Amino acid sequence: MFGEYGVYVRGTLIALVCDDRLFLKATDAVADVCRSYERAPPYPGAKPAIVVPEEDWSDGVLMRRLAALNAAALAKAKPLPKKAAKRSVAKPAKRVKPK
Predict the structure, then answer these.
(1) Edge-to-edge, what's the strand order for the sheet holding 39-40?
(2) Which pLDDT belongs to residue 37?
(3) In contact, 49 and 39? CB cutoff 8 Å
(4) Partner of 72 at 20 to 30 A CA spacing, among 2, 9, 25, 97?
(5) How confident is the model over 32-52, as a mean pLDDT?
(6) HEC string for 39-59
(7) How many other β-carbons are positioned within 10 Å of the β-carbon of residue 74?
(8) Do the domain assignments include residue 49?
C-alpha cells in the first residue's frame, strides 16, 4: 500500500509515518487545531494530509489530543461497503443410473 508505518487507535488508521514525517489524516477536527501546519501527500497519489512538525512530536498533550480528535472523527465516518461475497458455483446434480 504505502510501504511505511500506520498509526492506529482502536483499529482506526489515524496517521502515517513516511520518510520520517508524521502525516495525520485531514479531518475537520484536527484541521481546526493544526491550521498553521503544512499539508502534503504522504506518498505519490495519496490525498494531502496534515504534516506534524518533528518538534511537536515530544509534546505528549498535543499528540494525545490530535490522536483522540482524529480517532473520534474517523470512527464516525461511514464504513466502506463490504465487497460482495464470491458466488459459489453450484455443483452439478448427480446422475442417477436407471435400473
Answers:
(1) 5-9, 12-18, 21-24, 49-52, 39-40
(2) 94
(3) yes
(4) 2
(5) 92
(6) EECCCCCCCCEEEECHHHCCC
(7) 16
(8) yes
Sign of CA dihedral 63, 65, 67, 70: negative
Specify if 94 maps to a domain. no
Q: With respect to residue 89, please indicate whether it lies within any of the assigned structural domains.
A: no
Residue 92, in any domain of the structure: no
Question: 2 pLDDT exceeds 70?
Answer: no
Contacts of 95 (CB under 8 A, 6+ apart): none
List Cβ neighbours of 27 (8 Å cut-off, separation of 6 or more): 69, 70, 73, 74
- Rounded CA-CA distance 56/78 in Å is 30
Model confidence at 76, pLDDT cuts 50, 70, 90, reads confident
Domain residues for 23? 5-76
Q: Convert the pLDDT of each residue in 24-38 to its tens digit.
A: 999 998 988 888 999
- Predicted TM-score (pTM) of this structure: 0.72
